[in-house]
Amino acid sequence: MATALASQLNTLDLAQPLPLDSGKVLPNVRLAYETYGDLAADRGNVILIFHALTGDQFVARTHPITGKPGWWQRMVGPGLPIDTSRYHVICANIIGGCMGSTGPADLAEDGQAYGMRFPVITIRDMVRAQVALLDQLGIDRLHAVVGGSMGGMLALSFAANWPGRADCVLAIATTARHSAQNIAFHEVGRQAIMADPDWRGGDYYGGGRKGPEKGLSVARMAAHITYLSEAGLTEKFGRRLQDRDAKSFGFDADFQVESYLRHQGIAFTNRFDANSYLYITRAMDYFDLAEEAGGRLADAFAGASGTRFCVISFDTDWLYPTAESRNIVHALNAVAAPVSFVELSAPFGHDSFLLDVPALDRVVKGFVG
């Protein structure tokens, strides 16, 4: 069994206010990040990993709140597909997040928590902050950028908007834009949060007040269903009944799958901020690389023809199905960017990129090298 990898947890205050796509400027931006492996003397061995919506910087180290292993501990470490005996790995908590980087729970210049006064952010804003982080660390070019799900969006945005700064880009289980169905699922979660009386218009920080835990829990439950596959749920739970005496969240849990989802929802509230969830899901919904480039996805990658790409999808992922990955590949082909594409078979749905899929390990190791 994998053990937690030694890492270094850092925070960095950006030297300049961060300009945002909205036209506003975010002052006093702090990024929390972890590093794994030694930095080469020429700084040429850096891999930047972007995390997913509910992820954070704790890629391969025990999470300080949950006590669980890092979310990609099976992938990052000495001798693993992303080999920290060769590469210096960086993963930062995104802006808008809630694990140390500047977000809605932080204090604005008036000394009060931002709450819903936090400016609207985009996927490109999140990447812009991390590019500023790299600049301050003196890292001009990356060996690779890697990301799954929302992390894949960030990786694609990096390639499109900062071409030439990475030798290779690995985008897993992702999309170049959110579909109406994706937006609809996110809106269900946002409405659950905002309908919770404890949300208070986003002003629930301080004074011992309780946040919208019930609403956030429901949002997590709804989203978690989209991360799984029907076959996986059927195999794991079927229609098996729960212990009739078991209670979760104040209601009888008749089916095992109900109890599982309720546990996922409640556990999530212990480590995630509801306002961060609102802002990050909205940023994902706004994401549309083609629109950024005037309506044609290929034009988004016009400057990235010198970068190698690898795009990976999973056959049971109905959140970001293989057709979405093919759209990305076709756009890259149109600008003659070198790109590899593979659809992997796995029973876990969208979450396959986080779970034990040996074929994924082989592809990542072969591409990142």
Overall structural class, as computed from helix and strand content, comes to: alpha/beta
Shape: globular
Assign the CATH topology of the largest domain: Rossmann fold
What share of the residues lie within helices?
25-40%
The low-confidence runs, each spanning 5 or more residues with pLDDT under 50, are none
Number of domains: 2
The counted number of beta strands is 14
Report the CATH superfamily of the largest domain. Answer: Alpha/Beta hydrolase fold, catalytic domain
Largest pleated sheet: 8 strands, mixed
Strand order of the largest sheet: 1-4-8-5-9-10-13-14
What share of residues are in beta strands? 15-25%
Termini separation (Å)?
Answer: 23 Å
The tally of helices reads 11
Report the CATH architecture of the largest domain.
3-Layer(aba) Sandwich
The averaged pLDDT comes out at: 93
Radius of gyration: 20 Å
**Which H/E pattern describes the elements?**
EEEEEEEEHEHEHHHEEHHHHEHEH
Q: What can you see in these coordinates?
A:
- The chain is of the alpha/beta class and 369 residues long.
- The protein folds into 2 domains: 8-178 and 289-368, Alpha/Beta hydrolase fold, catalytic domain (Rossmann fold); 181-280, Rna Polymerase Sigma Factor, Chain: A (Orthogonal Bundle), CATH 1.10.1740.
- Helix content is 34%, strand content 17%.
- The longest helix is centred in the middle third of the chain and has 16 residues, at 180-195.
- The protein is globular, with a radius of gyration of 20 Å.
- Keywords: Acyltransferase, Amino-acid biosynthesis, Cytoplasm, Methionine biosynthesis, Transferase.
